[in-house]
Amino acid sequence: MRRRIDDRTPAELLAAARGGERRAVARLLTLVERGGEPAEIIAEATHHLTGTAHVVGITGAPGSGKSTLTGALTTMLADEGRRPAVVAVDPSSPLTGGAILGDRVRMEAATVAGVFIRSVATRGHGGGLALAVPGAVRVLDACGFDPVVIETVGVGQVEVDVVAAADTAVVVVTSGWGDAIQANKAGLLEVADLFVVNKADRPGAADARRDLELMLDLSEISGSGSDSGSGPGRRPAIIETTATKGAGIEDLLVGIDAHHAALSAGSGLSERRDRRFVAEVRARLDHLLARVADDALDDAGPIAGETPVDTARRLAEGLFGAAGAR
Amino acid sequence: MAGREASREPGPEQDAPPIRIVLAKLGLDGHDRGLKVVARILRDAGMEVIYLGLRQTTATIIDAVEQEDADVVGISMHNAGHLTLAPLIVSALADAGLGDVPVVIGGVVPDEDLDELVASGVGAVLGPGASAVEVVASVRGVVETGPRAPSD
User: Fold this and answer.
1) Which residues in chain A are contacts of B144 at CB distance < 8 A?
2) Whole domain around residue B114: which residue ranges?
3) Residue of A310, A322, A315, A318 lying closest to A297 (CA atoms)
4) Which CATH number does A51-266 carry?
5) In chain A, N or C: fewer CB atoms in 10 Å?
């Protein structure tokens, strides 16, 4: 199939992208997303050019206003003269592989303000996203974008993990989102460095704040709070916003900058980044191992007298020796 | 294993990377139901649809095509502005160095306007009678052949 042609090598694209050519940035992101050898070449070429950008993750339930919030936040950043970029993740259909990537609908002002926005589909849960997002962030960082905002729906471990790996993780809830029980079972809340109660002009904002405060109290008592070991060791701030009206966005910006400053003042930032490094290595290993497992499964069928546990042990032993079967 | 083959059953685009298409309505035109249906059709055909929605400008569309590295752009028009706006988007893409991105126009386009649109460089036109199969085939077709050069 004929596709748009760009004969430039990854190195040439990177040079052009760092020189400010947005099309080259976009093309690099495409290569990173497709994976394989070009993605690895780009990962190696960009690795040592990164570390400048403040990486912000924004997540929350569907419909909580993440895109609107991200749009308003990055518009304000661009208006201040900074160079924000957005990686907006939406799910692919597991049946057809297609996706409707609709985040730009809520980010029109950001587009006009010059924010670089890239929509990324999850492309199946085989772990591709866990490789594609760090790769995309690295490209944007290397090209001088700062901050880089990753926006994902807070459903599914991979999506939550990519946000958890950010320097600053923002979890968005809404007025009337449910009670403290929802907060406790959400699984999202443990990763938060900052909470946003969006749609704060609606009834229930005070309740949402109270439930979050309660949960944070409990986390402090049990010592299971977000990152209390390695971060600045502070309680996540709770910020109320009405993103559609721009209310509270400045508070959010201040909160994000303050978190970054607190991380940078201590060892927090480098610890975060070490953790991100390990998370990506783990994702790459998972990816490689999944391929090995796929190949091993090609010959595996139900065998009379073997349970699934037996078969898995036998295959693992074949692949990794006796240690693999444990 | 038959079961595993089935689970790997490719979506139509699974082997090649998915086609990425930007869909938008340009200017003052509030009829977006058709475009939403088209978005769904293309998604179900395995494409990645970057949906911009209503009241876009040539600038926001071009920014999206560039940043998203789209293979093709689809513009829906129900305001009788197609003879003005379609050539505008084609030339704006070319001016932005994105002349290799084909344009598909959909919406209410009278038959007698087709030749003029095609002459202006539009890759394909999908009228009100276009079936889902035709929509998918025509998007795949223009991605394969690339944009048409304006003939004047």
Assistant:
1) 1-2
2) 18-145
3) A315
4) 3.40.50.300
5) C
